[in-house]
From TrEMBL:
Protein name: Mandelate racemase/muconate lactonizing enzyme C-terminal domain-containing protein
This protein's record includes keyword Magnesium: yes
Keywords: Magnesium, Metal-binding
Source organism (scientific name): Spiribacter curvatus
Short name of one Pfam family: MR_MLE_C
């Protein structure tokens, strides 16, 4: 048994209306998805999705002909590739899916078997008015979801605070609220400087007043001293790490007590293999592991399996902000969009691997050259 083929395809779904992502100064008129398929010598295929993985084609020979079940070996090679090329971690996800299909085990069982379901929180992505955000919060509560994340970054902090105040008034204690400050990284064309500690603390004080659970990415991802200080000086939980790339960076975050909530995404940072080990470190340190996941449903389900099966958590991120961001748009590569049940949980089931089926017709219609 060996890896016979690796195929990478790129897809682009037109967005009408556009998606004005809160963290992007340019409204998005297309949603891109990269799909990787790994086929073994018996014809079984594992799937993954994530970043475009620029440059990975130059290294595929390092996997062809190898044992598909050698996940630890493959993860080390991918770590090396990640230094030389773009984020390659969708391939790690596809290898996990293939290994599960070979062994007849669901990915959550491969990750440790702790549980087969996991709660979700609704993650908003659009800057809306206080009234509309309040209506959205009521809708989210009615859907059975226990928590909601609000994006800051409007023209003024006063506008952001007005939204938070209106949402809290609308739902009371029925929803746990989190705030994403989006200061950890920028899009290539966005040259705004990140907040400094003093501004982050000013915002934290207002968030405390509204009983916010966590404050996400309040500082640049490399401001270790600022995160340590902010964590000490506020009663809020400090969250981050969604785009942190390397193992040693996470070790620094842990050693310097920078975060309460660690959010690495398996398709962006380290893959499922290494994140399983990191999740255990995070929990052993008395912190929370709950992945970021703002790609499509393949990455969402990969993070759900990884977390539910290894260390568990109260909830993980569910991108949901209709009408611009619906499950159908988010999960266009899949035959069935990923949805939580009436209690706000993703039920992962016992199907081998990730248990997902691609929508080949839609993928054919949306395929583009890289």
């Amino acid at each position: 048994m060996s890896i016979r083929d690796i195929r990478i395809s790129h897809h682009r779904l037109p967005l009408d209306p556009p998606f004005p992502a809160a963290w992007d100064t340019r409204p998005r008129r297309f949603f891109g998805a990269t799909v990787v398929r790994v086929e073994d010598s018996e014809g079984r295929v594992g799937i993954g999705s994530g970043d475009p993985m620029h440059g990975l084609h130059d290294y595929l020979e390092l996997f062809l002909g190898r044992d598909p079940l050698a996940l630890a070996r493959h993860a080390e090679v991918l770590s090396n590739i990640g230094f030389h090329a773009g984020r390659p971690w969708a391939l790690d996800v596809a290898l996990w899916d293939l290994a599960g299909r070979i062994d007849g085990r669901a990915a959550w069982q491969m990750a440790g078997g702790r549980g087969s379901s996991i709660g979700c929180y609704a993650s908003s992505g659009v800057h809306r008015s206080p009234e509309v955000m309040a209506d959205m919060a009521r809708h989210i509560h009615a859907q059975g979801l226990p928590a909601m994340k609000i994006r800051f970054g409007r023209a003024t902090l006063a506008e952001d605070f007005a939204v938070l105040e209106r949402v809290r008034a609308a739902v009371g204690d029925n929803l746990t609220l989190m705030v994403d400050c989006n200061q950890g990284w920028r899009m290539p064309w966005d040259t705004q400087p990140p907040w400094v500690y003093e501004k982050a603390l000013e915002v934290a004080r207002e968030l405390e007043r509204h009983d916010v659970y966590w404050m996400e990415e309040p500082l640049h991802r490399g401001d270790y001293a600022g995160m340590t200080r902010l964590r000490r000086d506020t009663r809020l939980a400090i969250a981050g790490g969604e785009m942190t790339r390397e193992w040693h960076e996470f070790q620094t975050l842990l050693e310097r007590d920078c975060l309460d909530v660690y959010q690495p995404d398996a398709v962006c940072s380290l893959g499922m293999t290494h994140l399983r080990a990191l999740a255990e470190q995070v929990v052993d340190a008395g912190c929370i592991f709950t992945p970021h996941t703002w790609g499509n449903g393949i990455g969402l389900i990969a993070n759900a399996h990884l977390t539910a099966g290894s260390v568990g958590t109260d909830f993980i991120e569910l991108p949901y902000d209709p009408p611009e961001w619906t499950p159908e748009r988010r999960d266009f590569p899949l035959s069935t969009p990923v949805r939580p049940d009436e209690n706000g949980h993703l039920q992962l089931g016992d199907a081998p691997g990730l248990g997902l089926v691609l929508d080949e017709e839609t993928l054919a219609q949306t395929r583009v050259m890289p």
